[in-house]
Structures are given as structure tokens and as C-alpha cells.
Write a structure and sequence with these properties.
85 residues; mainly alpha; three-stranded antiparallel beta sheet; 8% strand
């Protein structure tokens, strides 16, 4: 079940497309939270953080998630607790 018309995973992809992010460009967790707050205020910060972890190829906590076999969860590289590329 989702609170929105799309799952948060898909919304993360939508956000990246909307921002026209280039490979290697750095974004902050705060920017991501702000984007969700403006468009999907019912998505909690904890959910956003969990998805950033799930979708970061080098995040240790990623092993606790059932990742999509198509590789669509391979979206970010975690630089530190607040920065992703």
C-alpha cells in the first residue's frame, strides 16, 4: 500500500529526473526531504532516509532490504550521512 499514487522508490527516480541530475552531482539529504515536503508532505523523514539508504549502492544497511532485481534501487552513492551522488 502507498500513501501516494506512486511508491517512494519511484518518486526518488522522478525527483532525479526533475532535477536533471548529472552523474557525479552531489545532493543533500535536506534537499531530498525538502522536495518531498513540497510535493508529498505525507512522506515521513524516516521513510526518506530509509529509501536513501536502500538506494545507495555502498550503504551498509542496504543488505537489510529486498532490492529490485532490475537494478532500479542502484540510484545513489552515499558520501556521508547527508551527502549523496
Amino acid at each position: 500500500m502507498t500513501l501516494n499514487e506512486k511508491h517512494v522508490r519511484k518518486l526518488m527516480h522522478d525527483m532525479i529526473q526533475e532535477w536533471h541530475l548529472a552523474r557525479g552531482q552531489v545532493i543533500t539529504k535536506q534537499q531530498v526531504e525538502d522536495w518531498f515536503q513540497q510535493r508529498y508532505p505525507n512522506v515521513k523523514a524516516g521513510t526518506i532516509g530509509a529509501h536513501l539508504s536502500r538506494m545507495s549502492t555502498n550503504a551498509p544497511g542496504r543488505v537489510n532490504h529486498n532490492l529490485m532485481p532490475d537494478g532500479s534501487d542502484d540510484l545513489f552513492f552515499k558520501l556521508d550521512a547527508s551527502h549523496f551522488r
